[in-house]
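Quick start: read one record
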Amino acid sequence: MITQEVDYPALVKEVRRQLALGQEGLARELGVSYTTVNRWENGQSKPSKMAQVLFHSFCDKMIGSGRLMLPGDLNDTANSRQERSHE
């Protein structure tokens, strides 16, 4: 699980930018509402633990397919989660 504090507004914006997704598109991919993604991105709320798992799993999948590259610390976090899941 993630041990560092994640800047979700910046992360959500960056993921959407790289994947060329609108807030509605990302919401659809994650199975959450547009309003939920909008609130994360605007810092009005933080994803629940379940939503964090969904979001990071989605990011891991996109990183694995070569469609997403996140800044170093976030890639390290994703890579360590992938390694643990293969143990």
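Residues 49-64 form the longest helix (16 residues).
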